[in-house]
Structures are given as C-alpha cells and as structure tokens.
Amino acid sequence: MGQGSTQAASAAVCTPATPAEVRAMIRDGYTGYTGGKAPGYVQANICILPKDYAEEFLLFCQRNPAPCPLLERADQGSYRLPRLGKEIDIRTDLPRYHVFRDGVFCEEVTDIRDLWSNELVTFALGCSFSFEEALREAGLPMRFMDRGGVAGVYQTDIETQPAGRFHAKLVVTMRPFAPADAIRAIQVTSRFPNVHGAPVHIGDPAAIGVDLSRRYRDVGSDEILPYELPLFWACGLTPQLAVANAKPPLCITHAPSSMLVTDIRNASLASF
Amino acid sequence: MGQGSTQAASAAVCTPATPAEVRAMIRDGYTGYTGGKAPGYVQANICILPKDYAEEFLLFCQRNPAPCPLLERADQGSYRLPRLGKEIDIRTDLPRYHVFRDGVFCEEVTDIRDLWSNELVTFALGCSFSFEEALREAGLPMRFMDRGGVAGVYQTDIETQPAGRFHAKLVVTMRPFAPADAIRAIQVTSRFPNVHGAPVHIGDPAAIGVDLSRRYRDVGSDEILPYELPLFWACGLTPQLAVANAKPPLCITHAPSSMLVTDIRNASLASF
C-alpha cells in the first residue's frame, strides 16, 4: 500500500474498469471511494457478524427487505462470495472497513485478515448506487451527485420489524425531484427491489419523523428547491443501526462509499 | 325505454354481468351510468367525428397518448368495433350520447341511429375506470368512489401537442392519497399506459396551473386531507376540449360515465 500503488490506482480511475480490475486495484492498496468504479456493476454493503448473530440478522433482513436487500450470505467462516465474483476475498477486497465492538465503532482498517476467524459470517446487501445509476441513465437530475456528494441521510420514527436482538428505526436517504421527475423516479426505482426499490415516502418529512436540517451522522445534501418534492428511500445504514442495538462483540462493515464491487450487472437486477 | 325495462336494468345492476349482457341491457333501454357494470372489463370513451377531421384527430391521439390512449378506430362509416366486441353497434350501445355541433354541446340522446352517416369515423379511447379498478384491487382507498362519486376534474395550463385543428390544454383528474399509497398508486397505474398510465403530476396544484377550488365543469370531488398528496392523471376530457377548439360541424361523444363496455379485460392491458 505504498505511494506507488496509490498513484497506479488513481490512474485507473480515469478509465472504466471491470469489477475484477477494481478489486485487484483495492487488493493492491487503493483506499478511496468505489462510487463510479466499474460502472454498470452492483456494489454491495457488507456486514460481517459472529455466527451466534448470523441467524437473527438473516431474519432481520428477511423481515425488512427495503432497508436490507440481501444479495448473498457467505458460508460460515468463508471469506469467499463466489456468486458475486469468483475470486472475491472479503478480507482484502474493500478499500476500507469499519470495526465495531459491542455495537460501538472502534477503528477503520484497510484489511481484515488479522480479524478473520472461522466464526464469522459475511452478508452482502444491495446498495443505492445501483438505482442511482438507473436514475442517472433515465436523465433524472441529482445535484448532489454532480458535486461529487451523496444523498442526505435521515433517521425516521418508523420502527422496522425486529428479529431477536436486531431492531432499529428506519434510516432513509433523501433525493429531491421536480414533480414529474419524482413520478419517473418512483417508476425507475420500483424496477430494483433488490437495491432498496421504490421510495418509502414522498413529501412532508415530518410525517415520518424527519427534520431535514438534522441529518444522520451529517451525511449528504439536504438541499431542496422550492418546486421540488423530497423522496425518501430505505437506506443500508439501517442494518448498521440494528447492529449498534444488538451489540455483537464484533462486527465489521464497509466504510461509507467503500463497497464490495461485484460481477453482477445492475441491469440484471431489474424486475421488469 | 319504458319504466319496465328501466326496472329490469336496475335489477341487473346487482349481479355481475358480461359485457355483452350490459350492452344488450343498454340496447334494451338502460340509460344510467356504466361504472361498476361488467367488472374486470375495459370501458371506453367514444368520440365520433366527420371523416374530414378523422386523420387530424388520429394524429392528435398519437401525439398525446396520456390523455388520448387510443384503443380502436373504426373503419369510416362503420358502426362496428369488432376488436372491442363482436356485436357492438356504436349507434345504440351507449346509455347516453352528447352531440356537439361546431364544437358546442347541443343535446343529450340515447340513440344516434338518426344521426349516423357513412361520413362518420368512431374512435374508442381508454378511460380511468380501468386503472381505478386496479387501484381498488391494490387496496388503495378512494373516498369519492365509496360515496358513488368521481375524481375531481381540472383544466391545467399544460398545452398538449396540437395536430391540425385539434389543440387543448391538458385536462386532469385528481385523486388524493397518503404518501405511501401515492407511491403505490404510481406503481399500479404505470402498468396501464393504455388507460392514461402514471400520473402527470404530484403535489402543488399551482405548478400545473390548477386551483383545486375551481373544478372543470364542476365534476368530481376536490377533498384532500391534511396528510394527503394530490395526484393528477391525464383525463379523457382533454380530447373533448380539443373537439371544442376544432369545431367540427358534428361530433358525438359518450355522456359522462356512460361508456362503451368492451369485451377486453382490464388485466389484459397491464404492461408488466
């Protein structure tokens, strides 16, 4: 992970890369964002838990598919995800990882080989990058993306369906659109139930307990123009909040915008 | 059309009838609404024009599929619509007709055999009854229907695409929904592009030039509860407005809520 390889990685940013090339770049030391890398391919949220928490988390995902669209669960102890990419090694193939102990964030690392054990179970969840690509391809403007930013994130007062020790208020992302674009955005994202799907709410933020000026962890843009409506999508930070509540002794997730780049095409997830 | 046949028609209202039975009932003198008759089957707006206006009207429909979803155009002079129902006779199979001369409403009649000529061309257009059935089946509440009423109708300031002498501001229907139901309503109606499809607008009425207190021809309900959003769909009264502007010497349409009941199933129009 020396300076040389980081420069090589930066150079690779300029040209579209295959998912395998992006993962190799990350294994070689790239520690930046994955947004925009390997365009057209699904990027996944990652949540790694001790086996004693795996069944309950699986059930939490099953009961809350909008915030927790499960793409894959690895075999216990396996750092492979062959259905998402043949040579994936989840211990090295994310640019940065967040480590939580007893539900509390401890450190950010770029490799988890030291932390790995046969007790761990890896979950890969769909993420909004996929539907944002579809929105962009549909010509729907998202100003925050033009500025290199991300959608505003908010905690709602909507309780998800609990499963054992896992429970959380729904976390959402907000994207504002002019009315006709809002209708189109609902159509476009409805095609992608495996990556959060349609919005869960449109219009008045207070109806779901949201104050737009109070973003979750200060993430993203809260700008809405006078003629726009805010649309709210279920967000993959919901399961991280559920992990904070469940307080497993160890949990490892991707760092924000530092996802697993898979071999699955975004378009292959479209339901019609 | 004596009292006897009207009572027979009223009795038939209580049991689901086939489209052919409903048309026979109408031919036999029923002059009421067709809403709720032959559930599951498409009902069509009808517009009958002199041949000199037929090509321009066809083009107007082609350019404005949301308000003018064309299901069928009969051959010139033919009162048959075999693709919508084998024995249909458009001169007798609507409960009531509206007759316009030079674009101005003249009279309501229950039979147009006297007015028929080989110069006339019949157009059948999809109507919102089909998607309202889909909304109702999806469990989306519409209070105006529970009260036997219809959706509020409004003229917008949106100009449709003109074709020859036909031009009109877009007319819309308004249905209010709670936010999550509004998202679902967009999904459900998106499946039915042949019967107006998805809404054209959501939220602020003024953005499309609508004042909710000023309904078009005083038709329908304008009630919106505080937590609801108004959704606006393109409406089949738009082509009638275009006819008023084109001023053909003769035009015959269905009377409001007195449609052609066809043999086409609503579900067969669903695009996915």
Automatic annotation (TrEMBL), chains A, B:
Family of the protein in this entry: Belongs to the D-glutamate cyclase family.
TM helices/strands, residue ranges: none
Gene Ontology terms for molecular function: lyase activity
Protein name: Putative hydro-lyase D3868_25790
A Pfam family it matches: D-Glu_cyclase
EC number: 4.2.1.-
Swiss-Prot/TrEMBL keywords: Lyase, Plasmid
Main EC class the enzyme belongs to: lyase
InterPro entries linked: D-Glu_cyclase (IPR009906), Putative_hydro-lyase (IPR038021), UPF0317 (IPR016938)
Signal peptide: none
